[in-house]
Amino acid sequence: MTTTKQKVLFELLAHQGEWLSGDELATDLQISRESIWKAINALKKKHHQIESRKNLGYQYIETPMLDKDVVHYYLDNRLVDDVFVEQEVTSTQHLAKQYLTSHHIQKPVIFAAESQSNGYGRRGRAFYSPATSGLYFTIILPNTTDDWSQVGLLTTSMAVVIAQTLEQFFPDEQIDLKWVNDLFINDKKVGGIITEANIELESKSASAFIMGVGLNLTTDNFPEELLNIAQGINSQVKVDRNQLLVTLANRIINTYEHGDIPTLLAEYRHRSNVIGKRVTLKLGNKMITGTAKQIANDGGLIIEDENGITKSFTSGEVIKTTVFR
Based on the domain organization, do 245 and 133 belong to the same domain? Predict the structure, then answer.
């Protein structure tokens, strides 16, 4: 059931940039002027910036916060089962995993948070997740295929979609991709993706994939230990994070369900910042050093070692890259 506050918010969003008088809102929504006034005040207390002027009425400006109602307004809700937007969580991955312990999903479910106290990436590495300057979310994607040859391309495909979308919101920036799941600008990380499978023990198959995305958008105040390896995309650009979340979610879901994998893989190769470089791959307790030759058709990293032997790796982490001189 839609509340009065939601009805007023949606009407203001539908006419963003325009003035709506209290009488117009009351007539259109068939509620009293007093109810309009109360709803406006309630929205302002929730950090919605709404300008009020005598003889003009109300105009919606923006909200600096992630807001579930705004996300629902812009999102094609036919694509998802549910959306959760929280203030601070341990991590959106944790929320998604907990959700799957008591729910069987038919369509994607989205979890987003203003900040994370324990955000993490591959191998449990911490991801810095301050409030208001980043975007941290997880999408549960129901597994609809037994074609495991395509599973390895899930992260590579989504990395391309995310990079393309970020460049739309930050048109002066170019996003590179470090195998397999990191987003870079120049030599610094601006975001990462982690994809985990929810395994059903009885069938020993994945019922869903849990894809987490962490992005430092306008963050410019990093802990000292991260100053040389991480940055925000651009602290000078004003971004509507609700619209960015919705755009990313729509494109991720549509790509997952209908994506052109060969085209996305070609784009991933084009954006790779490791191909042609000397790399060190950490694989368990082993270190493999050689030249990154190409991204394989299954998303693996093809490395040629010092002996000229070429091998493709589908797991591991590139911990060092060196440009040949």
Answer: yes
pLDDT(281) > 70? yes
pLDDT tens per residue across span 151-194? 778 999 999 999 999 999 999 999 999 999 999 999 999 999 99
Residues 78 and 51 in one domain: no
- Domain extent, residue 81, equals 68-271
Instruction: Name the DSSP letter for residue 93.
Output: H
Is 116 labelled a binding residue?
yes
d(CA 288, CA 279): 8
Give the C-alpha distances (Å, rounded to integers) separating 237 from 166, 215, 234.
Answer: 12, 14, 6
On whether the CB atoms of residues 139 and 112 are closer than 8 A, the answer is no
- Whether residue 93 is annotated as binding a ligand: the answer is no
Q: Are 202 and 133 in the same domain?
A: yes
**Structural domain tally of the chain?**
3
| Interval 92-149: pLDDT, tens | 999 999 999 999 999 999 999 999 998 877 666 789 999 999 999 999 999 877 665 5
- Regarding whether 158 and 39 lie in a shared domain, the answer is no
* Residue 37, pLDDT score: 95
- What CATH number does residue 41 fall under? 1.10.10.10
- Regarding pTM above 0.85, the answer is yes
Q: Are residues 140 and 192 in the same domain?
A: yes
Residues 204 and 135 occupy one common structural domain: yes
Reference 180, options 209, 208, 159, 196; nearest CA is: 159
Q: Given this model, what pLDDT does residue 105 score? A: 92
Partners of residue 202 on adjacent β-strands = none
Sheet of 82-89: strand order equals 82-89, 109-116, 134-142, 205-216, 188-200, 182-185, 176-178
| Structural tokens at position 16 | 């963003």
Query: Are 257 and 233 in the same domain?
Result: yes
* pLDDT of 263: 93
Are 23 and 164 in the same domain?
Answer: no
